[in-house]
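Handout, section B. The chain below has 105 residues.
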Amino acid sequence: MAVQRSDTLIGDEVVRTLGAQGRFSQVLAQVSEGEVTLSGDVPDAAAKRQAEAAVAAIEGVRGVRSHLNIDGGSHSFGPRGRAVRDNPDGSDATRRAGIDLDEND
């Protein structure tokens, strides 16, 4: 009978596995009872499949739910695979939240 790994240990390995690849820097993972939920952005369909397969191969993972989006650059700026998220509508999120970081009060 296989020993069940804790969600914390699985999560640590997910982070190490995905972190070893720069193309997964926008991927978030949640682990609950061995089920891993992936969300965030990847640069292409191949990266999406690779992330899902790499996580599924981790010892103790009972399943992978993928909510990964393929970001071809339309919602970000920077080189493909190393894109940085931005407000696509150009609005200033800090002002919308009622915070002005430029105030000197």
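Note. The first helix runs from residue 7 to 19. Compare this with the example in section A.
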